């Protein structure tokens, strides 16, 4: 595994370097003494894993992690003198995209260091995670499904997700208009309606095939050009936070593979302009029909903009999704609670 190390203390930097190189399957591709330097190096040569110090002047480990996950996303392990003493910063770094944290090894005498085994164990675990994730993410064609919903959306989402096959191989990203405090509960409820894995979309998360990601913030959910979840404040004047328009628009500008946008039942116009942006980039777009909508506002607005390729009743949308992505739809027996 290609590993990079960031630490503003030269002695600690060398100790970590020696510790990593004690395992033959790892190589250290660069060393950085600051967060700024690490961000620049990562853009030039992206490692598989970065060992990131948390306390550094100017740009600390949290800020460096956030910047690297935006510019050159990769696995980041926080290595700090004391996780307990720096718990606030550690949790901030995990929220910014770091995968784990470990205490820095401490020199004992001239040669031995306490904590090396713990460090190498963390690195080995992350290496297995990376290998598994890469295998899970590899497809001959990069694909994504986006769904936006508002009033009446939870029931509509349950209908679609329950009808998709358990081995549906494409990541699904959803913006549902709901207060952020209820998103976790909605996620749990949807998990009971489908055999797919429904999870909260966390800042810095990579998209894995077969998972359903729910927007989980009062900021706008976007997907950047590295296929990573990012939340942003802009646009400030949006009525809805998160906005379906912003998600769809990020795909129109950043996505290099195949994408399908689906706009479901909802009041207002959110999602219509974003669906049009996707349509103009030759991405396929669906909208729910009037008869099956609880409220026809959002789909109607998109249709009026000529942003929709296909208008479908709710119970036909999952089948159309599978046809679009050439996925075999299989019968599923679900117990709805």
UniProtKB/TrEMBL annotation:
Keywords: Chemotaxis, Cytoplasm, Hydrolase, Membrane, Transmembrane, Transmembrane helix
One annotated Gene Ontology cellular component of this protein: cytoplasm
Keyword Chloroplast belongs to the record: no
EC number annotated for this UniProt entry: 3.1.1.61
Molecular functions (GO terms): phosphorelay response regulator activity; protein-glutamate methylesterase activity
InterPro entries xrefs: CheB-like (IPR008248), CheB_C (IPR035909), CheY-like_superfamily (IPR011006), Sig_transdc_resp-reg_Me-estase (IPR000673), Sig_transdc_resp-reg_receiver (IPR001789)
One Pfam family it belongs to: CheB_methylest
Transmembrane segments: 144-166
Matching SUPFAM superfamilies: CheY-like (SSF52172), Methylesterase CheB, C-terminal domain (SSF52738)
Reactions it catalyzes: [protein]-L-glutamate 5-O-methyl ester + H2O = L-glutamyl-[protein] + methanol + H(+)
Residue ranges of domain CheB-type methylesterase in the record: 138-328
NCBIfam families: PRK12555.1 (NF009206)
Protein name listed in UniProt: protein-glutamate methylesterase
Species of the source: hydrothermal vent metagenome
